[in-house]
Amino acid sequence: MFSTPIGYKLIASDMTASLKRTAEQPVVKRESEYYLATITSIKSVDEFIKNDRIFKYAMKAFGLEDMDYAKAFMRKVLVEGIDDSQSFANKLTDRRYAEFAETFNFARYTTGATIFERARQGTVDRYVRQTLELDAGQSNEGVRLALYFQRKAASVDTPFHLMADRALLKVTQVALGIPEGTASMDIDRQADLIAKKLDVNDLKEPEKLEKFLQRFTTLWEIDNPTTPPAAGITQLFTGYDNTIGLDLLQQMQRVRKV
């Protein structure tokens, strides 16, 4: 099992190849082919929700698989759409629902909602990326968090966007050394604390983002060792575990000096 920094780097260093491998997994390929062959034939919200295979695929693509049982809830999201600022989706704090309603915009386009690229290949691309992250999380939750943050970073415009997403906030807290207990503080104070330590505009610059995530994965590994240290004092003199390479040790040393 790879350490968090190495596991993340192996995936992120060639994301195109990583996504291709995921897309070619038999189950992923089969479900994606069915989705693409079927989605444009769906002409209404009720048809969409009734087709369990299509609906669950779409929900997973948006990271909403835990809510795929809540069909009445999702029907309200889709029927009301996003054009009205007071619609159900627009009132929800979690912006994934508004993104879902915009992608499958039956409220605006009725029978033509599924012909758009975002509802076809765009959703398949989302599904593959979600699967990649979920697979990574099976081995190392820190890698999954880093990949998720990498994907969402471009949409972060203020510290409040980080605070509104538990996964983004977790990465931010670890990378910046902010205690979890600060989450109970007044939200403006929390935002100020983050702003003093991080310019969110840096997250839109690939090199700065990768440096930020390198720091996160290194600190995550320190607090959540991939391989627990062996018991016994003799371990201190018999070399480092094979899962921890020289590059990781150097990263840890640099981070601790900051």
Distinctive features:
2 domains, 258 residues, mainly alpha, AGR_C_984p-like
Main beta-sheet strand count, sense and barrel state: none
Helix count, DSSP H or I runs of 4 or more residues: 16
CATH topology of the largest domain: AGR_C_984p-like
CATH-assigned homologous superfamily of the largest domain: AGR C 984p-like
Q: Count every beta strand, where a strand is a DSSP E run of 2 or more residues.
A: 0
Q: What characteristic shape results from the CA principal axes?
A: globular
- Relative helix content: 55-70%
In quaternary terms, these chains amount to: single chain
Find the structural class using helix and strand composition. mainly alpha
Please describe what this structure looks like.
This protein has helices spanning 4-12, 15-23, 26-38, 45-50, 52-61, 71-80, 88-91, 96-103, 106-109, 121-139, 141-152, 159-163, 166-176, 187-197, 206-223, 246-257. Helix 2 packs across helix 10 (121-139), helix 3 packs antiparallel against helix 10 and helix 6 (71-80) packs across helix 8 (96-103). The chain is 62% helix and 0% strand. The protein has 16 helices and no strands. The model is unreliable at 229-253 (pLDDT under 50). The radius of gyration is 21 Å and the shape is globular. The chain folds into two domains: 4-124, AGR_C_984p-like, CATH 1.10.3700.10; 140-257, AGR C 984p-like (AGR_C_984p-like). By secondary structure, the chain is an all-alpha fold. The two termini are 28 Å apart.
